[in-house]
Amino acid sequence: MGICKPIVGELTADEMLTALPLCTQELAFAEEIYALTKGLELPLKSKLRTFSPFLDETGQLRVGGSILQAPVDYSTKHPILLPADQLATRRILWYYHTRKLHIKSERLLTELRTRYWIITGRDVVKSVVNPCWPCKRRSSKPVPPLMASLPVHRLTPYRPPFTYTGVDYFGSLTVRIGGRGCRHEKRWVCLFTCLTTRAVHIEVSDGLSLEEFMLCFT
Ligand SMILES: [Zn+2]
Q: Which residues, including other chains, have CB under 8 Å from residue 43's CB and lie 6 or more apart?
């Protein structure tokens, strides 16, 4: 087998996806490639024995398998073998994960198996996808804050309503003033809520100043 050339300069995605498996296979499966080139049996301790691997015309190690008659693509019948513990494998996984808009691990594994067979693939895919921040952010759930104990005025009945009252503002809202030649102005809503009955009373306010609030309050 030829020695893998260093990857330099700008490579297109297709060139990278062809060069990386060749390089990583030569690093991880050197014994198996040597045995297949010489027509020898694979080493007994080799992880690839169950895959009946063979070398294609470009020198890539592919799965042999028993679905030769299946009506599917050549690369699906004979996916390229990739080792689990190589940086190139992780790069390929990351490339597909981001290109397919951050798909989940099981889906990514299924998509990849039409082209690559990664040894212990499920674990490797999880180790690439699980630390991905965009995926973490998308799947995370908000944690509701722990509420403090309610104040005594919320728990004790008082008469009449609005003996104890909460106040808040919301807005601004744009309102139309006048008929013909009308103008638009901002208004705010002052909201009073009874702490005992939760009844609500609202007043329209012209502004956010103390004077405007006192008018609403009165
Ligand atoms: Zn992701």
A: 31, 32, 35
